[in-house]
Write a structure and sequence with these properties.
- This protein has about 260 residues and is α+β, with helices and mostly antiparallel strands.
- The chain folds into two domains: about 100 residues, no CATH class; about 140 residues, Gcn5-related N-acetyltransferase (GNAT) (Aminopeptidase, 3-Layer(aba) Sandwich).
- The chain is about 30% helix and about 30% strand.
- The protein contains seven helices and eleven strands.
- Helix 4 packs antiparallel against helix 5.
- The chain starts with a helix and ends with a strand.
């Protein structure tokens, strides 16, 4: 449960970071562990609600209020239930309010001392940190293929990405063509990996591992860090145990379907 909570906290802080810095986006923290992040975009990737203690009646009322908020705006969102907060009761309440469990993500963690990186690709991947508009555009263009409105979202928050010390975003280039992304978010005790995406023609060739290797080298510069965490899809869950990651829970994602 302790490791679950480390990942949960990092995930929440990562989701909050950019919207909380932008004047047109809204972050509302409710009682009993619910956080609503509204970006103004019609996107179930960027509009999200996180958590909630559904054993309490007040949480159910807040959930009803939030869902009606998005219905009235005719906008999509995703409700994330982290491993430390998911319950059968919460699942049933969200179902009754019209949300369906559309995806599960696997929380995985490894001690920084135990992480293993074995780069198998013989092709060199050039990895750049987002530090100008062109690299940011390359980053968001890859995410746009999987997350609707990514280009618009990252244009809105680009100033906060470049100057934030806790969030680092990267693009991997093969022969100057952007083919993969990754990012890290740093807080005390754990650094989590996000946005691990490789374009389909370049998958299973070792490029994702090269990206992870690059990020881990940067992680190890942080002397306070004890663990590295991530959320893996059912496809990605087969890659990460080779690097030493172990499954420690599941994120449940709910939406209107």
């Amino acid at each position: 449960m302790y490791l679950d909570r480390l990942i949960d906290k990092n995930f929440l802080q990562r989701k909050l970071l950019l919207p909380a810095s932008h004047q047109s986006m809204q972050v509302v923290v409710y009682e009993l562990g619910i956080t609503n992040i509204y970006t103004t975009l019609n996107s179930d990737s960027f509009n999200c609600v996180i958590g909630g203690d559904f054993s309490q009646l007040q949480t159910q009322r807040s959930a009803d209020h939030i869902i009606n908020f998005y219905k009235n705006k005719n906008q999509d969102f995703t409700w994330y239930m982290p491993p430390s907060m998911w319950s059968k009761e919460g699942h049933e309440v969200l179902n009754k309010l019209g949300l369906k469990n559309v995806q599960c993500m696997n929380s995985m963690i490894v001690s920084l001392d135990d992480i293993k990186v074995n780069v198998q690709s013989t092709k060199y991947l050039e990895i750049k940190t987002i530090e100008n508009d062109q690299i940011l555009e390359d980053f968001s263009s890859i995410l746009e293929l999987f997350n609707s409105n990514a280009n618009q979202y990252y244009q809105m928050v680009k100033g906060y990405i470049i100057r934030n010390n806790n969030l680092k975003c990267y693009v991997g280039y093969l022969n100057k063509i952007p083919i993969c992304t990754g990012s890290i978010y740093i807080n005390k005790d754990i650094i989590c990996l996000y946005d691990l995406i490789t374009l389909l023609p370049f998958r299973r060739k070792g490029f994702a591992t090269q990206m992870i290797n690059f990020m881990i080298k940067n992680v190890k510069k942080n002397k306070q860090t004890k663990f590295v965490g991530l959320q893996a899809s059912n496809e990605g869950i087969y890659l990460y145990p080779k690097l030493g990651f172990q499954k420690c829970g599941r994120f449940y994602l709910y939406s209107f379907g």
